[in-house]
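I am writing to request your help with a piece of structural work I have in hand. A protein sequence and the structure tokens that stand for its backbone fold form the material at issue. Please examine both parts with care and let me know of anything in them that strikes you as inconsistent. The record follows directly beneath this note.
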Amino acid sequence: MDLMVPKYAYMFGFLQADGHLYQGAGRKGRLSVEINARDVDLLHAFRKLTPYYSRIAERTRSTNFAETHRSAVWTLCSLEARTKLNELGLPYGRKSKTISPPDGHFSERDYLRGVIDADGSLGHTKQGWPFIALTTASTAIGAYLCCYAQQVTGAGRTLKRNTRDGIYNVLYTKENAQRLAADLYYEGCLALQRKKTAADSLSMWVRPADMRVAPERRRWAAWEDHVLLRLNNDTAAAEQLKRTEKSCSIRLWRLRTGRVPMPSGQ
């Protein structure tokens, strides 16, 4: 399972987000992936990529969202295969907060597409704007997406868990969503077909002529915080940092009250 190969990188990202490794007594255990039955073609692709015996079965059950839900389950029991996946970074048992991008070299956009296909969403908002989003409990995964997306789109994001359930919700809209989707869902890539179709549809959106383009918010760097704290004066800091007095005042208040961490070295 060479993660520089796009299909394996995608598969591993999907398994990290939506797969489960169970460890039984002795050498027993299994990898299990359950998805909507309409997406069963993806499991057949995984089975074809895997040089070990595995099986795919469908089942029907009731859920909180539907009285009748049909799902497809791919099961792989090989100890050698499970050991390889575990070594690459797919832990046994509960994993939502502990997973992280693989060590070493891997096909980044294919890996991220796998994660988003499993735990993300894309399409159009109620207003008709393109969007691509990821919901994750893993700080490492959320931070990695933010870093990668900033390289592709130029849009920075501050990673923050929501207060309701401690989950990260990373969202990109409009042109940023278009650029990111075009990069991740390229022609001929392995992906959930319905999400590939949704990604392709994002390119059709055109910003209305009367829709203002909001400038990307300028992030505070550590050296700016040092200058702000040293001067301790909104007017002087605004002139030196080329910022508004209001933004300097608010930032200084946040630093002094602990709303944001002090820069290193303070």
